[in-house]
Amino acid sequence: MRQICNPVTWAGIAVLAAAPALAGQAGAGRSQADIARALRSHDRDTVAHALGEVPFGYDPEDELGWKFPPDYVVTPELSAALISALDREARVHLDGCTPTGIGGRHLELSLALEHAVIALRDPATIPALVQVICSGGAVRQALMRFGPVMIPHLVEWARSPDAAWADVAGSLVALSRAVERWEGTLASEARASIKDVALLCLGAPQRFDTSLESQFVIRKAITLASVMRDPDLLGILDDISEGDHETLGSVHPNTAAGLRNMAREGLSGPVWEMPRRR
């Protein structure tokens, strides 16, 4: 089970990731077919070097930021290889957005692959991007661009026993934003599946190893419940606000006070951050 996310480590990855992405703009002599074959290697040095030959970079004026040069047409073979490389990196070498099992080697590779896959702007990237939803806003924005079709993938990931607390929290944020954006058009099946995730996360904090991990997931679940405005979910928020819910037993008493306050505010309307204690 994927368990741990270290925000400090991930911040370091963000700094390092720009190097291969921007260096790739210089280009190299290999064809896209050769690069694609290298990206499918199980050797991470080979993958990293191949990614450095793919020209993509960051445009602050662009909606998604990450993009390819206008004259660079990505072949289906290269697109599939980039998606496969990100998916493999996430499943094999990430533990809730923390690189694991490799002694800190290639800290930047996962985020650089993520940026290249975002630049594809292809719905086929949804499953791989969901695997790294814990990384934050860039992936969430890319997924939102595809519309409600992303929702089943997020629901499945949030419910997966392989998802670490950071994966679950990231999924809950993305689902909250989806409900906020498409409230009037979401299919009943989609709403029902999102509600089930909220119920699961509000009722099973013991799934996570520490009080801190539970706190983050509960906070995001409270936000989702407050955005959905479902009577059953609001009933749970009422119980939490009164201190009468089992979920509070998994966190430190000082944290529980903040969660009660957040739930209380969530009864009145969407609440995105934990309010200060009063």
Q: What would you say this structure looks like, in words?
A:
This protein is an all-alpha fold. The protein has helices at 7-23, 32-39, 44-51, 76-93, 109-120, 126-130, 137-144, 151-159, 165-182, 188-203, 211-228, 231-241, 253-266, and strands spanning 57-58, 66-67, 94-95, 98-99. The strands form two sheets. It has a two-stranded antiparallel sheet. A hairpin with a 2-residue loop joins β3 (94-95) and β4 (98-99). The radius of gyration is 20 Å and the shape is elongated. The protein starts with 6 loop residues before the first helix and ends in a 12-residue tail after the last helix. Mean pLDDT is 85; it is low at 1-28.
Which short descriptors sum up this protein?
single chain, 278 residues, mainly alpha, two-stranded antiparallel sheet, disordered N terminus
Summarize the structure.
By secondary structure, this protein is mainly α. The chain has helices spanning 7-23, 32-39, 44-51, 76-93, 109-120, 126-130, 137-144, 151-159, 165-182, 188-203, 211-228, 231-241, 253-266, and strands at residues 57-58, 66-67, 94-95, 98-99. It has 13 helices and 4 strands.
